[in-house]
């Protein structure tokens, strides 16, 4: 019997949070009426990704008046996708939704997502950003370039404009949990599963408070993880760069031979210097691309957990469901996240 069947929970909402003490009060004030209005049993899993501000204390204060709120605190900052993994692995609902606490994705759409999934028998409902005018021009431009790139390399099944605001059925969640991928990029993993899916479109709003937790460096890292995890195109790019360097060297050699046979005085150091620079640059690019894949293999071989749980205010998992903790929940018990390989 599944955990959802035992608890009768229809909907779990996973909320990764990191230093969101300014946004949490407004987020809770909008999320709770939506969930209470559904008329179903639900839970909210706030995954504290090693926050350094007052987020942990604020979550405890909110939970004192909101029994459906459950906090999972990670021992250190493990990243947004790892926090999502921790929430997905502990959610017990028949449906599991994920949403950030900055209110850029409207909680009111959760009711529409759940209704669409139940009516049409869908396993995945994506929240698709139909209007991103609240974002900066740079943010819109980089996001558009990212989705163009992944859709070209990974496949057209990746919905453009869909981030980590989505609803999953229990079957989809269990399929994700069975995958060994590390690091995980859910916006590519979920479409790859091929479950029946639908979309709910919405206007992306401005962040309610605080600053973004996804600066340019993390966006680039996420894009690189997605591309190297789902496509061998960068390796093929290295092959084509090597072929281009070889052809260029052949042309330079032909030019040098023609100049020598014609008796023209051509300074040898210029062409030699240009050829060495070009070939050396291409070699460094190729070695860097190979290094990205070797790094992924290295991480998979190490089998290190994606996260460590310091505290879970919810009940312990039942024996045999694959999620039993090593220590008592809420009493400093340590639990490891899913492992690669």
TrEMBL record:
Topology relative to the membrane: Multi-pass membrane protein
Residue ranges of domain Glycosyltransferase 2-like in the record: 12-176
UniProt region (Disordered), positions on chain: 316-341
Enzyme Commission number(s) of this protein: 2.4.-.-
GO molecular function, one term: glycosyltransferase activity
Signal peptide: none
Subcellular localization(s) per the UniProt record: Membrane
Protein name (database record): Glycosyltransferase family 2 protein
């Amino acid at each position: 019997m599944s955990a959802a069947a035992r608890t009768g929970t229809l909907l779990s909402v996973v909320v990764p949070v990191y230093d969101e003490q300014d946004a949490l009060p407004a987020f809770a004030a909008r999320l709770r009426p939506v969930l209470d209005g559904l008329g179903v049993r639900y839970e909210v899993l706030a995954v504290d990704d090693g926050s350094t501000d007052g987020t942990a204390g604020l979550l405890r204060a909110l939970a004192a008046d909101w029994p459906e709120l459950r906090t999972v605190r990670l021992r250190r900052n493990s990243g947004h996708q790892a926090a999502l993994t921790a929430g997905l692995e502990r959610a017990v609902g028949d449906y599991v939704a994920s949403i950030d606490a900055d209110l850029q994705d409207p909680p009111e759409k959760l009711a529409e997502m759940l209704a669409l999934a139940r009516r049409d028998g869908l396993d995945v409902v994506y929240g698709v950003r139909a209007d991103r005018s609240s974002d900066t021009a740079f943010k819109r431009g980089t996001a558009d370039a990212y989705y163009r790139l992944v859709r070209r390399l990974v496949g057209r099944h990746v919905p453009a404009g869909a981030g980590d605001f989505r609803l999953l059925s229990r079957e989809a969640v269990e399929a994700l949990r069975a995958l060994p991928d590390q690091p995980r990029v859910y916006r590519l993993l979920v479409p790859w599963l091929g479950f029946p899916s639908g979309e709910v479109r919405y206007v992306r709003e401005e962040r309610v408070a605080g600053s973004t937790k996804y600066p340019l460096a993390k966006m680039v890292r996420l894009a690189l993880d997605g591309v190297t995890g789902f496509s061998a195109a960068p390796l093929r790019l290295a092959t084509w760069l090597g072929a281009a360097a070889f052809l260029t060297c052949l042309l330079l050699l032909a030019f040098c031979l023609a100049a020598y046979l014609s008796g023209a005085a051509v300074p040898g150091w210029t062409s030699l210097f240009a050829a060495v620079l070009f070939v050396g640059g291409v070699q460094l690019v190729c070695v860097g691309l190979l290094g990205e894949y070797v790094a992924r293999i290295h991480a998979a071989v190490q089998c290190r957990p994606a996260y460590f749980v310091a505290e879970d205010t919810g009940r312990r998992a039942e024996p045999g469901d694959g999620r039993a903790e090593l220590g008592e929940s809420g009493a400093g018990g340590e639990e490891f996240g899913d492992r690669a390989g």
